[in-house]
Amino acid sequence: MPLLELEGVSKQFHARGGKGIVRAVSNVSLKINAGETVALIGESGSGKSTLGRLVLRLLEPDEGAVRFDGVDLTQLSVKEMREMRSKLQVVFQEPFESLNPRMSIGDIVGEPLIIHDRGLNSDARKQRVRETLERVGLSPDSSTRLPGQLSGGQQQRVGIARAIITNPKLIVLDEPTSSLDLSVRAQILSLLADLQRELGLAYLFISHDISTVEYVSQRIAVMYLGEILETGPVSEVIRDPRHPYTRALLSSRLSTDPNESLPRLRLIGDIGSPTEVRAIGCVLAPRCPMAIDACRSQIIQLIEFSPNHEVACIRAEETSDALLSNSISGGGSN
Ligand SMILES: Nc1ncnc2c1ncn2[C@@H]1O[C@H](COP(=O)(O)OP(=O)(O)O)[C@@H](O)[C@H]1O
Ligand SMILES: [Mg+2]
How many helices (DSSP H) and strands (DSSP E) are in the chain? Predict the structure, then answer.
């Protein structure tokens, strides 16, 4: 049984400003096994954070099931969900914004224990806080300081300490390194990898950038305008991407590597509008250089391309060949 299982999960919003419906997440199914990292990749506005919030039940899905350890979270009462939260934690992109600026580091990190581990007295709690701070590479002395007195990297270590102190099984990492400098980013990634190994954690690692997650994830799910377009083992998807969208994301990453042999693919225009997504046709068709008429008139679903590798593209078989031979038919306006 997977640790986390999403089945047919959808979430719509009224568009900000009042015009139309945003299909933020459409019919998403996804599994994460215990101890595994699944990367969720896509441009800004793809629906990644919404999916993360649905997993944590910070949002209620319109449709579908979110099962954690076999329990459908959408059926739990507020009290049951509060208990479940100790097993299901989150780290956000902006560490400073997610930390109360007036609380000491020790109180921030210890707070989840007050909610989830009421049996602990204050001394035992302080001891747990000290151990947890050390485990994330902070000195126990930092517990008396305020978030504003720490660097961005240290603040993110506090966010991670707060997430692991309740011994969770799964952590949703929502772009945890995107606001950090490159050198600090590498340290935080390495800390997350160490913690995963030591504590047997599973991660849903959200990022707009494939290079960030490539070495720390086992599987990848590529999201665009609310839908998962490709999913599979990271090494296979990066070596042999079958969806034009994945290929395009990799093309932007590879632009710094002159030895890379994968042919480039450039999408037409910017990310589409989530208020204009229709039920029929591929969500990428308006931007896809490989799109043909059938891409606009059929229901496009994820289908197995090879074991564990699924692609929502009717031209998945041809992706590399079409690009290599420069024989892309269709053009954007076909
Ligand atoms: N509470 C909300 N109300 C209206 N629209 C929202 C809300 N939350 C997210 N959206 C919209 O849903 C889409 C997906 O957003 P989000 O999940 O934040 O994407 P990502 O994390 O991939 O950047 C965007 O178009 C965003 O503007
Ligand atoms: Mg986001």
Answer: 12, 12
